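Weekly sync, protein design subgroup
Attendees: M.S., D.O., the rotation student, P.L. (late)

Item 1: inverse folding check
M.S. brought a backbone from last month's batch and wanted to see whether the design step gives back something sensible before we order anything. D.O. pointed out we never logged the input encoding, so this time it goes straight into the notes. C-alpha cells as presented (122 positions):
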C-alpha cells in the first residue's frame, strides 16, 4: 500500500505543483486549500505525511500540524515557507515537524518526501 500524503496550501496552484510529482511517483495524494477542509481530511483519513504551507487564511500551517499530530502522533509533517525563517523552523521542530523553503521542482519535492519517510518510524 502506498504512503498517503495530504498537501495543504491556500494557493491551489501550490497544491497541484507539490501533488503532481508525488502522484507520479506512486504516492496516494489528497489536497486541500483551507484549514477547515484539511482538518476534515485529517479526521476522516489521516495521512502518513502532512505537507502544509505556512499561511492558511486566519490560521497557519503549524496550527494544522499541532492538530494533526495531537490526534496522530505517528504522522510526519513538513511546513513550507516562501523563505528561510529561523523562528518558524524552531516552532516547527517544537511541534514535531520540519520547516523548509517550498521546493521549486519535482526532484526537490520527491527528495523532501523521501527524507521525511526515511526519518519517520512508520
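Designed sequence read out in the meeting:
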Amino acid at each position: 500500500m502506498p504512503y498517503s500524503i495530504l498537501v495543504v496550501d491556500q494557493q491551489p496552484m501550490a497544491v497541484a505543483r507539490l501533488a503532481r510529482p508525488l502522484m507520479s511517483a506512486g504516492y496516494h495524494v489528497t489536497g486541500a486549500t483551507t484549514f477547515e477542509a484539511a482538518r476534515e481530511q485529517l479526521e476522516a483519513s489521516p495521512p502518513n505525511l502532512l505537507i502544509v504551507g505556512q499561511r492558511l487564511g486566519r490560521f497557519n500551517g503549524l496550527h494544522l500540524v499541532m492538530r494533526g499530530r495531537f490526534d496522530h502522533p505517528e504522522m510526519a509533517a513538513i511546513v513550507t515557507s516562501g523563505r528561510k525563517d529561523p523562528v518558524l523552523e524552531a516552532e516547527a521542530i517544537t511541534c514535531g515537524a520540519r520547516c523548509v523553503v517550498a521546493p521549486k521542482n519535482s526532484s526537490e519535492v520527491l527528495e523532501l518526501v523521501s527524507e521525511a519517510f526515511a526519518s519517520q518510524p512508520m
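Discussion: Residues 4-119 form a domain with the Rossmann fold fold (CATH 3.40.50.2300). Helices lie at 12-24, 35-44, 61-71, 86-94, 106-119.
Action: P.L. to compare against the previous round before Friday.
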